[in-house]
Design the sequence.
C-alpha cells in the first residue's frame, strides 16, 4: 500500500519523445487508469515505474521515497506485461508460484500458504485446469490470464497492469473487468491500469489520466473526463462513437454551423453569458455527443438541419446512425426501436444543453 | 534450406515433363537427386575410411602391416595388437587422465563462460574491448603462447600435474565457449529477465533460474565441443606433462613409437580405444547437440 508519484518524467528513444514531463500522483489504494491509444506512452510509463526502463529525467516516488535508481527487485512493484513474458520452462503453476519463491518473499510465506495463494488466484482467473500446462500449450487469452495471475499472487506496494485483459474474449473481459475492480478494492493496493479502452477506463478507474503522445492531457474522475474534457483531444478520444465537432460562428443567442449548408442552432442563455465573458474573439468549435442528437422527421420544425441516413450500425439496444449533410457526416446514437430507413432524409435536433465549447486555435475547452 | 527447396522444385519439374533443355539436364546432374547421393557417399567415405582403415590395421598381423598396404587384412585376423597395446603402455591410465582433464576443464569452462557471456551481452561488461580480446585469444595459434604458459604453470608449481593441464585447457577453451553461448543468450527475450527482476530476483538469481534453464541445450552442446577439444588437445599436454601420472591419451599414443620403430598395429588399437568414448558421447548427445547448435531460440 503506497502512494506512487511521478514528477516530470521524460523519456526519449532516440529522437522520439515517449514521455514528455509526465507528472501524476496515484493516491494510496486507488485504481488509476492510464488511458491512451497505442503508442501514447502507457507501457513506457509502466516500464519506468517498474524499473525496467531508465528515464532521462524526473523522479519516481513511492510513499515519498525516491526509487528512481532502485533495481526492479527492490521496488516491490508487481507488473503484468502486455507481452505476457511467461517463463517457457515453467508450468502455469510454477509461473504463478515464481514471484512467491523469490528469496525475499520465501521468508515471509510458508510453502503451503504460497501454494494456497496460487490456487486461489488460479481459480479466480479460471486457470485451475491449466496448472500443469506449459505456456506454449496455452492460447493467447490463457497466457494473458497467467500473466495477470503472476501479478495478483503478490501483495506488493503497487500493481502495474499493462492492458491486462486486452486479449481475452469479450465475455470474459467483461467479467474480469468487474472482478479486477473488486479485487483491487478489497486488497486496497495502489494500482496503475493502462488501457486503450475508454469503457474500461471510465468504468473501473477511480482516477483517469488521458495520455496522448507522451503528454498527460487531463487527469480526473471518470465523470470529469467524460463531461468536462479540457481540450479537443480528450473530447474526441473519450466517448463512443466520438463527439461530433463543428466549427461555428458565434452570433449571440445562436451559433451558425459553418459548412456547405450552414444552419443555426440556438444556445442556452447561460452558455451565451459564459461565452461572452470568456471566449474573447477566438474561433469557436462546438462539440455534441452522439447521444445528444435526436433524429426527427425531415419536416419537423424542431429540427436544426437535415441529411441523408447513410449507415446504421445496430449495437443491440442502441444504434449508431450516420447522417450525411452535404460534405459532413454526423453520428447519432439512438434507441434501436425508432430507426429511420436507410437513405431516407431525416431531421437532426441537437440538445444545446449538452454542448461543449472549444477554442479552435488552442483546442482548449471554454467553460 | 533454400537449396533443398530448389532441388525439390527441380525434381517436380522433371517429373512434370517440363521442356528439357541441355541447361536443365546439366542442372539436374549437378543439383538433382543423383548428385546429392554421390556427394553424400563421398563425404561419408572421407569420414569413415580412415577410421575403418585403423580398425582393419589393428586386426592385422604386425608382419602384414609392414609388408602390405591393403585395406582389408589378407592373412588371419588377430587380437595380438589389442592385447599388446594395453600391456606395453599404460593406456587405461592415459584414458583416465584424459577423462579427468576433459571433464573437469569442461565444467570449469561452462561455469565461467555462462556468466561471462551473459554479463557481456546484457550489461555490456568490458565495452567493445573485452569481447574482441576474448575472440582475439582464440584466433591466436596456441604455439605462440606455449612458452609463457609453461613458465606460468611452472611458477604455480603445477607442471606435470592434471590440475595444471586442466587450468590451461579451461583457459584455452573459454573463448570458443563464450562465442558459442553468445547466440543462445541473445535468443532469450530480455523481457523474461525483466519479469524475473520484477518478480523479486536479483540479476544473478535471474541468470540461474531463468536464463540457464532456457539455454541448457546450448550449454550442453558447448560442453560436448569443449570436451572433444580438450580430449584431442596435443600441444599443451605435450609441453606440460611428462610422465604416466599426467600424460593424456594423445600423448600416450606417441608412446608406441619405440626403439624398434612404429608399432602401427598397437597404435591403431590404442587410437581406436581412445576415440570410442568420445564417439559414444557424441552419439548419445547427438540429438541434443544438433538441437542445441541449430536452435538457439526460445519459444514461449
Sequence:
Amino acid at each position: 500500500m503506497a502512494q506512487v508519484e511521478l514528477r516530470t518524467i521524460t523519456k526519449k528513444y532516440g529522437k522520439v519523445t515517449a514521455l514528455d514531463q509526465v507528472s501524476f500522483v496515484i493516491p494510496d489504494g486507488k485504481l488509476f487508469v492510464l488511458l491512451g491509444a497505442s503508442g501514447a506512452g502507457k507501457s513506457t510509463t509502466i516500464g519506468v515505474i517498474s524499473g525496467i526502463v531508465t528515464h532521462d529525467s524526473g523522479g519516481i516516488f513511492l510513499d515519498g521515497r525516491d526509487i528512481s535508481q532502485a533495481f526492479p527487485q527492490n521496488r516491490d512493484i508487481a507488473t503484468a506485461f502486455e507481452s505476457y513474458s511467461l517463463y517457457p520452462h515453467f508450468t502455469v503453476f510454477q509461473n504463478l508460484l515464481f514471484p512467491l519463491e523469490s528469496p525475499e518473499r520465501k521468508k515471509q510465506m510458508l510453502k503451503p500458504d504460497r501454494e494456497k495463494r496460487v490456487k486461489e488466484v488460479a481459480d479466480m482467473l479460471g486457470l485451475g485446469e491449466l496448472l500443469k500446462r506449459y505456456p506454449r500449450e496455452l492460447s493467447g487469452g490463457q497466457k494473458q490470464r497467467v500473466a495477470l495471475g503472476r501479478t495478483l499472487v503478490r501483495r506488493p506496494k503497487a500493481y502495474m497492469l499493462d492492458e491486462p485483459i486486452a486479449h481475452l474474449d469479450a465475455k470474459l473481459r467483461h467479467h474480469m473487468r468487474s472482478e479486477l475492480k473488486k479485487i483491487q478494492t478489497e486488497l486496497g493496493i495502489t494500482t496503475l491500469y493502462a488501457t486503450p479502452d475508454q469503457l474500461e477506463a471510465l468504468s473501473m478507474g477511480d482516477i483517469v489520466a488521458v495520455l496522448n503522445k507522451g503528454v498527460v492531457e487531463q487527469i480526473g474522475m471518470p465523470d470529469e473526463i467524460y463531461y468536462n474534457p479540457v481540450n479537443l483531444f480528450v473530447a474526441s478520444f473519450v466517448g463512443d462513437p466520438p463527439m461530433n465537432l463543428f466549427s461555428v460562428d458565434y452570433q449571440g443567442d445562436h451559433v451558425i454551423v459553418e459548412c456547405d449548408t450552414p444552419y443555426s442552432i440556438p444556445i442556452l442563455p447561460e452558455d451565451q453569458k459564459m461565452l461572452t465573458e470568456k471566449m474573447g474573439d477566438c474561433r469557436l468549435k462546438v462539440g455534441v455527443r452522439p447521444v445528444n442528437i435526436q433524429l426527427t422527421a425531415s419536416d419537423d420544425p424542431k429540427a436544426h438541419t437535415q441529411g441523408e441516413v447513410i449507415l446504421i450500425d445496430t449495437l443491440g439496444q442502441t444504434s449508431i446512425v450516420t447522417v450525411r449533410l452535404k460534405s459532413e457526416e454526423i453520428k447519432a446514437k439512438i434507441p434501436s426501436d425508432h430507426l429511420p430507413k436507410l437513405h431516407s432524409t431525416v431531421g437532426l435536433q441537437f440538445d444545446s444543453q449538452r454542448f461543449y465549447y472549444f477554442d479552435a486555435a488552442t483546442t482548449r475547452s471554454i467553460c | 534450406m533454400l537449396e533443398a527447396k530448389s532441388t525439390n522444385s527441380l525434381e517436380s519439374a522433371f517429373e512434370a515433363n517440363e521442356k528439357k533443355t541441355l541447361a536443365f539436364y546439366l542442372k539436374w546432374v549437378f543439383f538433382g537427386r543423383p548428385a546429392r547421393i554421390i556427394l553424400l557417399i563421398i563425404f561419408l567415405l572421407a569420414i569413415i575410411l580412415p577410421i575403418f582403415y585403423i580398425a582393419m590395421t589393428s586386426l592385422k598381423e604386425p608382419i602384414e602391416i609392414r609388408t602390405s598396404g591393403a585395406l582389408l587384412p589378407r592373412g588371419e585376423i588377430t587380437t595380438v595388437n589389442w592385447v599388446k597395446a594395453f600391456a606395453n603402455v599404460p593406456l587405461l591410465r592415459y584414458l583416465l587422465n584424459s577423462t579427468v582433464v576433459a571433464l573437469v576443464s569442461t565444467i570449469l569452462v561452462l561455469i565461467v563462460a555462462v556468466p561471462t557471456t551473459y554479463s557481456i551481452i546484457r550489461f555490456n561488461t568490458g565495452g567493445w574491448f573485452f569481447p574482441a580480446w576474448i575472440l582475439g585469444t582464440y584466433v591466436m595459434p596456441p604455439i605462440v603462447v606455449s612458452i609463457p604458459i609453461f613458465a606460468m604453470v611452472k611458477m604455480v608449481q603445477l607442471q606435470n600435474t592434471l590440475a595444471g593441464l586442466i587450468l590451461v585447457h579451461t583457459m584455452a577453451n573459454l573463448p570458443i565457449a563464450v562465442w558459442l553461448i553468445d547466440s543462445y543468450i541473445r535468443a532469450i527475450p530480455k523481457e523474461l529477465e525483466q519479469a524475473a527482476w520484477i518478480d523479486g530476483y536479483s540479476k544473478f538469481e535471474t541468470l540461474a533460474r531463468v536464463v540457464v534453464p532456457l539455454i541448457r541445450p546450448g550449454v550442453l552442446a558447448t560442453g560436448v565441443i569443449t570436451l572433444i577439444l580438450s580430449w584431442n588437445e596435443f600441444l599443451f599436454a605435450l609441453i606440460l606433462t611428462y610422465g604416466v601420472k599426467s600424460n593424456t591419451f594423445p600423448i600416450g599414443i606417441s608412446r608406441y613409437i619405440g626403439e624398434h620403430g612404429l608399432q602401427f598395429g598397437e597404435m591403431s588399437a590404442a587410437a581406436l580405444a581412445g576415440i570410442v568414448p568420445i564417439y559414444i558421447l557424441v552419439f548419445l548427445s547427438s540429438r541434443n547437440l544438433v538441437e542445441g547448435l541449430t536452435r538457439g531460440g526460445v519459444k514461449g
In short: The interface with chain B takes residues 50-52, 71-73, 75, 77-79, 81, 83-89, 98-99, 102-105, 135-136, 143, 150 of chain A (CB under 8 Å). The first helix of chain A runs from residue 42 to 50. The mean pLDDT of chain A is 92.
